[in-house]
Each structure stands twice: as structure tokens, then as C-alpha cells.
Design goal:
By secondary structure, the chain is α+β, with helices and mostly antiparallel strands. Helices cover 19% and strands 27% of the residues.
Length: 282
């Protein structure tokens, strides 16, 4: 197995590696590389859902697929509650997966829950000739880019992350539009978090939509968030994944955010995603 840095030095390409067959020593080396590069890309993989789930579990316990507010009985009826289908494909008049073909805003996966996933893993089953790229931004670099006074203030802030909307702005099941960000549901997290494994500090913003800084008026919260977001996704802190069939991407939600470019609704895109509830204790 070899690890080669990709442009902007917060993603890396992994070669000489098969995610369906991995021994302990190889996984330890992969995990160590992931703590150095919060995005790892492995190409030319061939995984069914069971193999994807088994590989994902090496990183830690899995998080349930985000389905909005559903009962335990409804969740138990799912074919696999830990593997999400991300797709715009429609069969028999119904979409087979979530998020369609619209552009997705910058976000951190499931930051609206009390204990957000530490990692997300996305596997390309059907890809496009054009469009549907996934962009990543380095939130360690975003924190470093803040003016020193704003950076110090960010370390004192607690931010509410909206739970009602997904990354394309649609309402999640069981939710309604809030009258303002003050009323929006969602978990509250520190705006700056320290990575428990590698010690780095990063901004933790989630989504801009309906975010709210705890303790401020709405106007002051909006103004502060607009100022902080000016330093997110600067040119030298962004990396773009252009998908190929068989690509497997592993990223650290504690260090990066991501968004998806829109694509032609008539084209087919099919991805499988897993999310890690908490990192393996190593």
C-alpha cells in the first residue's frame, strides 16, 4: 500500500489496497494515514453492501442512516439501516435514494445530532461523465485563516446546527420549516473543536442554513456567521473529487466539510454511504 498526497495536502490517494480484504497491520497503516490526511481516496474497488459495511466497521461503530424522524419499527423494516443510497435514479415512479441531483451546500454530515459521525465513507456504484463532483474544504485551514480576534471569539462560541433541512435544503421527514433560526431544532456544538486523536483544532460549522449562535440576537448571530463563513473554502483549502466507477472515499467530519455540484437529472448517479458513530479507540 502506498499513500500519495493530492493537491492542497489534506487529501491523499491510496494505491495497492483492496478494501474487501484487509489485514490488521494494513488497516493500522491506513488509519494512521487518515489521521494525517482527513480525506483518503481509493480507486478501482469492487464492494457489495456487506463488504462496504464490514470495511466501514473497522473505523468504529456505525451510525444509522439519516432518515429524519422515524420509529424503531420503521427502521427495522429497512433492508440495511447502516448503508445509505445516494442517488437521483427513479424506479417505478419513486426515487431509490436521497438527495437527487440538486447542488448540495457546504455541510458536515449529521452535525445536527448530539454526537455527529466522526467519519463518512462514500462508494461510487454508478458515475457520471460530467457533473456531480464532490468538493471538500479544510476546516483546520479555515480556522487558521480567521483574523486572530475572530479566531479567539470563535473558540468561545456555541452554535446550533439546524436539524430540519438536508444538504440540498429540503425538509427532513417529520420536520417543518421554523419561523427563524432561533426556533429551528438541532444540537448545539462548540464552533471550534479539538480533534481527540491528532490534536488539531478546526471550525465546526455544519450548514449555514438556519444556524444560530447561542446567546445572540438573530441579527448579531447572522452577522457573526456571515463574517466567519467568509474564511471557509478559500482557494488553497479546497480539493475536488471527480468520481470514477469504483472510487471509495473516506473523510473525517471533524476536519473537513463537503458539498456536491448539481448534475443533469436525466443522468444516473448511484452511491452508497456509511457513517462512523465514533472512531475506533487505538
Amino acid at each position: 500500500m502506498q499513500i500519495a498526497p493530492l493537491p492542497n495536502d489534506f487529501a491523499a490517494e491510496v494505491t495497492g489496497f483492496d478494501a474487501s480484504r484487509i489485514d490488521g497491520a494494513t488497516f493500522d497503516a491506513l488509519y494512521a494515514a487518515w489521521l494525517r490526511y482527513p480525506i483518503l481516496r481509493v480507486r478501482e474497488q469492487r464492494l457489495d453492501d456487506a463488504q462496504l459495511q464490514a470495511f466501514s466497521k473497522r473505523f468504529g461503530p456505525l451510525e444509522y442512516a439519516p432518515m429524519g424522524r422515524i420509529t424503531d419499527a420503521e427502521r427495522n423494516k429497512l433492508a440495511n439501516p447502516f448503508v445509505t443510497t445516494i442517488s437521483n435514479i427513479v424506479e417505478n415512479g419513486r426515487p431509490i435514494g436521497g438527495l437527487g441531483n440538486a447542488e448540495a451546500a457546504w455541510h458536515t454530515d449529521m452535525s445536527y445530532i448530539e454526537d455527529p459521525p466522526t467519519a463518512s465513507i462514500l462508494y461510487a456504484v454508478e458515475t457520471l461523465e460530467e457533473g456531480g463532483d464532490t468538493h471538500f474544504c479544510n476546516m483546520i485551514a479555515a480556522l487558521d485563516a480567521l483574523p486572530s480576534g475572530l479566531r479567539d471569539r470563535a473558540r468561545t462560541i456555541r452554535l446550533k446546527h439546524d436539524a430540519a433541512h438536508d444538504s440540498v435544503g429540503r425538509l427532513r421527514r417529520g420536520h417543518r420549516h421554523a419561523s427563524s433560526p432561533l426556533e429551528a431544532p438541532g444540537a448545539v456544538h462548540p464552533m471550534v473543536r479539538r480533534h481527540p486523536e491528532n490534536g488539531t483544532e478546526a471550525l465546526f460549522l455544519g450548514r449555514r442554513q438556519d444556524a444560530y449562535v447561542e446567546g445572540l440576537s438573530l441579527a448579531d448571530s447572522e452577522a457573526l456567521l456571515d463574517e466567519v463563513w467568509r474564511y471557509v473554502a478559500l482557494a488553497d483549502a479546497v480539493w475536488t473529487q471527480r468520481w470514477r466507477l469504483g472510487d471509495l472515499l473516506i473523510w473525517d467530519n471533524r476536519s473537513v466539510m463537503h458539498r456536491r455540484a448539481a448534475f443533469d437529472a436525466s443522468a444516473r448517479r448511484l452511491m452508497r454511504r456509511t457513517q462512523i458513530r465514533s472512531a475506533t479507540s487505538r
